[in-house]
Design goal:
Length: 304
């Protein structure tokens, strides 16, 4: 792996950390809102009790004046006692209000800190994007040649994938070398994966946001391979384009490979309708014979 490619890999890890930080900030914000709701509720309750206490204090003061005027000493003593209790309750309410106000102030501070953290994460995300353009000044292979191609390639790569990347379907089985014989669809250009390539694993990496996106070519870059997406039968599927372990085939080569697989690799047993197909040339059968041998390896065998 070149220095540039290694740097991209490290930046991808940074991006994952940024996404994780955003998730934590979001969870903390939700928890903060729940606490804020509880504090608002407590504040309203204290205000209601405080109003009731003030009303009770006024009523007791009027009652005390009346009992003193009538010389009801015992009643006046009871009223004074009640007034003292109301006064104590008011003091407790005042202390509770101070605690609530302090908690609200602390929540405000935490909210500002979360806002600043979110802003820092956004700045970090921007910095990661800018790092790609800086890396574009370096040659991809680490040598002096090929630098301009590397610059062009890297300048087009972005971490932000299209919005629908999480809903992209797995590549069709027709792109797997061992499944070619069962395919009913042959395109002008076809790409098949050798047995050791896990197309589903690559698709999962793309859906989870671990790929790079080339907006110009509309291709995903992951694990040394490129993928594109197309709509078919009401579903958007990924399909392999080029890269490690991927073999491009013409329609004639693809059909010839189908015939070889149906014949078990024996040219003498090739189905008649394949032999009559004028779109399959002699060179197509030769390449199909080579590719057929690759289907006989282990699923996770050695790379060719």
């Amino acid at each position: 792996m070149s220095v540039v490619e290694d740097s991209i890999s490290q930046l991808r890890a940074v991006r994952d950390s940024i996404d994780g930080g955003r998730t934590q900030v979001s969870s903390a914000s939700e928890e903060l809102e729940r606490h804020q709701g509880a504090i608002d509720q407590a504040s309203r309750a204290i205000e209601e009790v405080s109003n009731s206490t003030a009303t009770a204090a006024d009523g007791l003061e009027q009652l005390a004046s009346a009992t003193r005027a009538l010389n009801y000493d015992s009643t006046a003593a009871s009223v004074e006692n009640a007034k003292e209790r109301v006064s104590n309750a008011t003091a407790h309410l005042l202390a509770a209000r101070q605690h609530v106000e302090q908690a609200a102030s602390e929540i405000g501070l935490v909210r500002r800190t979360l806002g600043e953290t979110s802003g820092t994460l956004d700045q970090s995300d921007t910095a990661v994007e800018e790092a790609i353009s800086r890396l574009s000044s370096l040659p991809l292979s680490g040598g002096a040649s090929g630098g301009s191609g590397a610059r062009e390639f890297l300048s087009e790569l972005r971490f932000k994938l299209p919005r629908n990347h999480m809903r992209l379907g797995n590549p069709h089985s027709r792109h797997r070398l061992r499944k070619v014989a069962k395919s009913k669809y042959v395109d002008k250009e076809n790409t098949v994966a050798l047995p050791y390539i896990d197309l589903v694993k690559d698709a999962e990496a793309i859906r989870s946001g671990k790929a790079l996106w080339n907006k110009k070519t509309e291709r995903y870059h992951v694990n040394g391979r490129q993928y594109a997406a197309k709509d078919k039968d009401g579903k958007t599927r990924l399909y392999p384009v080029a890269g490690d372990g991927l073999i491009p085939l013409t329609s004639g080569e693809y059909k010839a490979l189908q015939g070889m697989m149906l014949a078990g690799g024996d040219r003498a047993k090739r189905p008649e309708h394949f032999l009559r197909n004028l779109s399959i040339g002699g060179g197509d059968w030769d390449r199909a014979a080579v590719l057929y041998e690759l289907t006989r390896g282990d699923e996770e065998g050695d790379r060719p």
